[in-house]
Automatic annotation (TrEMBL):
Pfam families hit by this protein: FERM_M, FERM_N
Biological processes annotated in GO: actin cytoskeleton organization; cell-cell adhesion
PROSITE patterns: FERM_1, FERM_3
GO molecular-function terms, A-Z: integrin binding
Protein name (record): FERM domain-containing protein
The organism's place on the tree of life at top rank: Eukaryota
Domain FERM per the UniProt entry, residue ranges: 10-185
PANTHER family tied to this protein: TALIN (PTHR19981), TALIN-1 (PTHR19981:SF7)
A GO CC annotation given for this chain: plasma membrane
């Protein structure tokens, strides 16, 4: 038999949906649900029971830009792959959620592995603090990504409306000298 000594505290890298990475010291002997209380408290999220961690398994590197609108590409897809995506409905079931009742070590999560923090349960909009920019940003990015990848299907009209909001968020008010024909290409 082999006996291994490991530190009780370890740094855990958490990637947020907006691409930022936070490193949080966690107690490696605690189960994931207890760790989430610590992680969310450090990040500033109060309703920790609605969030969970996902193993980030070989996800394609997103382009190093902040733009989501281009002629043939967005942050999550390119138009050539859209036909395949339309044939398949994506759900959060495809995500590799960590088990809340087990430790990271029991689930084989290495110390070098980065985990993704996502909202897993949507109990009520009343749980979203409209004054909390961290929580609002995470919720917005997750909703935007779910619309883009097809796990939250919307009508064409709603997609156009959301694209308009995204343009407003990303580029601000229309500036005729800056936002001319071909600007998004």
């Amino acid at each position: 038999d082999t006996l291994e000594y490991k530190k009780k505290q370890r740094p855990l890298k958490i990637r947020m949906l907006d691409g930022t990475v936070k490193t949080v010291m966690v107690d490696d002997s605690k189960i994931v649900s207890d760790m989430l209380m610590t992680i969310c408290a450090r990040i500033g999220i109060t309703n920790y029971d609605e969030y969970s961690l996902v193993r980030d398994m070989g996800e394609e590197k997103k382009e190093e830009t902040t733009g989501t609108l281009r002629k043939d590409k967005t942050l999550l897809r390119d138009d050539k792959k859209m036909e395949k995506l339309k044939q398949k409905l994506h759900t959060d079931d495809e995500l590799n959620w960590l088990d809340h009742g087990r430790t990271l070590r029991e689930q084989g999560v290495e110390e070098t592995e980065m985990l993704l923090l996502r909202r897993k349960f949507f109990y009520s909009d009343q749980n979203v603090d409209s004054r909390d920019p961290v929580q609002l940003n995470l919720l917005y990015v997750q909703a935007r990504d779910d619309i883009l990848n097809g796990s939250h299907p919307v009508s064409f009209d709603k997609a156009c409306e959301f694209a308009g909001y995204q343009c407003q968020i990303q580029f601000g008010d229309h500036n005729e000298s800056k936002h001319n024909s071909g600007f998004l290409e």
